[in-house]
Design brief:
Radius of gyration: 30 Å
CATH class of the largest domain: Alpha Beta
Number of domains: 2
Largest sheet: 5 strands, mixed
Strand order of the largest sheet: 1-2-3-5-4
Number of helices: 22
Length: 544
Amino acid sequence: MQTGIDSRRVGGASEIQAEIDSRHVGGGGIQSEKGGGAYGVVTVKSTGLNGIAGYEVQVECYLSGGLPSFDLVGLPDAAVREARERVRAAVKNCGAEFPVNRITVNLAPASERKAGTLYDLPILVGLLACSGEIPCPSAETAFVGELSLTGAVRRVSGVLPMALAARERGIRELFVPAENAPEATLAGDLTVYGVSDVRELSAHLRGTRRLTPAPPWKPGPGEAPLLDLRDVMGQEQVRRALEIAAAGAHNLLFIGSPGAGKSMLAKRMPSILPDLTREEALESTAVWSVAGLTDAQHPMLTRRPFRSPHHTVSTAAFVGGGNVVRPGEISLAHNGVLFLDELPEFHRDALEALRQPLEDGEITIARASGTVRLPANFQLVCAMNPCPCGWRGHPSGRCTCSARTVSRYVEKISGPLLDRIDLHVRVPSVEYEAMRRREAAEDSATVKARVDAAREVQRKRFADSAISCNAQIPPSNLAQYCALNPAAEILMENAFRTMGLTARSHDRILRVARTIADLEGAEEIQASHLAEAIQYRNTELLKS
């Protein structure tokens, strides 16, 4: 009896034979006429993210006989699976014919979990090529982008690391959402096309109306000025510590009563730090891109990041994490400053998570699906009160905290974490005369000039190594770069014995002394340089 149904579309032996006979052409796919009913595989290249590292993803689209269906395989998450409905609506609303076939889309490598909406565009291109609507893209072309139901192409996060990965894998043309095009051009050696909607992409691939490549992004007019040190009245000793920290990338802790200027000083640290190199800017921008913090107007960081999370921040938001690992605050501060105000109020587990990145410059996050390493080479600046009420040691004598209360408050900061902070600085209350002083304080530009000069000395010193500043000198090289003369050696020995220093604090004192000598243009660390470095390690400040 005639059923009116094509046996090839019902499955069975005829469908299996059709699958066996189909041609699989990697990269370029098959050539078929529109509506010709040819079955086969078209492979469209795209990219994915693992932490902040990009990798190549091949989107394999297959049309076969059988009842109409749309299957997505290759470890897609919920957002990727929902691409079926976005792609279907986008194809129909852009005037193309959606294939009425059994559709299978595989995201290879199938062992890597795929997340996000960035695969919408390559899936659409693969289906249109399979059905003959457009020519098959070349093996040197990749696509990234989210689709709206109308066919518009929306921006996605993480374009820069994906563009860098595409370039490394031999991709020559990269199609991204128009809003992401400036960011993608930062990868270099790529022809980047910004796509606004599916219609213009189809016209470009058919050759009827070519898209114009996005020009390389260049910084525009200057950004808003940074906060300046000239606003800080008095506090000469504290300003000196801030300059030393900036010159050697040392970690810094301010301890003082409310209103002494701890936060004010810390927020002016970026104004005296050296400018970002292009390599550092790309590293930091990649982290911000994955976090979704870049945009078309500011696709690249031009200043060192300054992150100041609130003390109620969760550990996952602080160090990074989630089902799909995303960078946290410590990674967003990469190559910049992480400022923790009210240090004892942070969750203990969040503070203890700082230990590894302060030593290694990266954070390792382990999940059941694998281990991800995120960059976290930041400069830590902290501020805290000397006691819960904040007034211990203040000339007004208004502190009402007992010794036990102060002890419990200070014990919130563990010894191992405190040992990793190079400079512990008392911030005294500002005197009335300093506030009424008429002469202007030294501005940030003047201080930055000295910091830049010290960093240039360090750059030349470490030119043949992976070290970039004094804070990164490994213990094995301390004898080479931080040698002490006899007088300084005696001073260091006495301080080690009387202050009960650890091996780590000993090494950090030497690094700070090396920075002080660089600021003064001295080739050798003198006893005076070492003495100043030792006074910044006085942990008794937390007990006074």
